[in-house]
Design a protein that fits this description.
It is a single chain. The chain is of the alpha+beta class and 204 residues long. The chain has helices spanning 2-19, 27-34, 38-48, 77-93, 99-112, 117-132, 142-155, and strands spanning 25-26, 54-56, 61-64, 159-165, 170-183, 190-196, 201-203. It folds into three domains: 2-64, Orthogonal Bundle (Arc Repressor Mutant, subunit A); 77-132, no CATH class; 142-203, no CATH class. The chain is built from seven helices and seven strands. Strands 4-5-6-7 form a four-stranded antiparallel β-sheet. A three-stranded antiparallel β-sheet has the order 1-3-2. Helix 2 crosses helix 3 (38-48), helix 4 packs antiparallel against helix 5 and helix 5 (99-112) packs antiparallel against helix 6 (117-132). The longest helix has 18 residues, at 2-19. The chain is flat, with a radius of gyration of 21 Å.
């Protein structure tokens, strides 16, 4: 039993270490930091790979794919309601195909179904809207756009944003480190907030 507890604690330490080093670490360095042998850490990595998105790149560095990483979040009913309300506002304001939102809502729905069936059904209806939305104004690209920005945020990468200025009547491109995405209050559109290196400031 004691050996299993030690191993479980080491697994968690390995997970936290990889999360804090998105650039990846060599197996020898991981073993050194966790004070175990390289064969032991290799066995741990192989076993954890069946539960976590642990990858090894061409340079033999081990890293955790943060985009695919499943966070363990505990929400009470009031917090789930807050997320549900936010999703209802979004799907009423902007209709676009967004599978990630549908998947998240169905997970919330399954959590509350056994003790609040009507509440669960309402959340599933929001998920269905994101699944079945068929816009005709080009906003079908919104879901992919958000996913690209999310990957950039998680991996601390910049993206190239192309923007058409109605005032200038021209299109320009900028590098942006995205921080946040939110629906625009007026019209079927999204805004992204981020840092622009060329002006050394935050812009929407």
């Amino acid at each position: 039993m004691k050996r299993a507890i030690v191993r479980s604690g080491r697994f968690k330490s390995l997970e936290m270490l990889l999360l804090s080093h998105p650039e990846g670490l060599a197996r020898a360095e991981i073993a050194r930091r966790l004070a175990v042998s390289k064969p032991t850490i290799s066995r741990d990595i192989d076993e954890l790979s069946s539960e976590l998105p642990i990858w090894e790149d061409d340079s033999r560095k081990i890293y955790l794919n943060k985009v695919a990483y499943l966070n363990e979040v505990h929400l009470n009913s009031e917090e789930i309601q807050a997320v549900s309300i936010a999703s209802r506002l979004l799907c009423r304001k902007i209709r676009f195909h967004y599978p990630a939102a549908a998947s998240a809502l169905r997970k919330l729905s399954s959590v509350v179904e056994e003790y609040a069936e009507d509440f669960s059904r309402t959340i599933r209806r929001s998920a269905d809207i994101f699944d079945t939305a068929v816009p005709n104004d080009g906003s079908e690209k919104y879901g992919k756009f958000i996913n690209t920005l999310t990957a950039a945020m998680v991996n601390k990468k910049a993206v190239k944003i192309t923007h058409y200025s109605i005032r200038k009547g021209e299109t320009d491109s900028h590098l942006l480190h995205p921080y946040h995405v939110e629906p625009y209050a007026e019209g079927n559109s999204l805004h992204v907030l981020g840092f622009m290196p060329e002006i050394n400031d935050i812009r929407i």
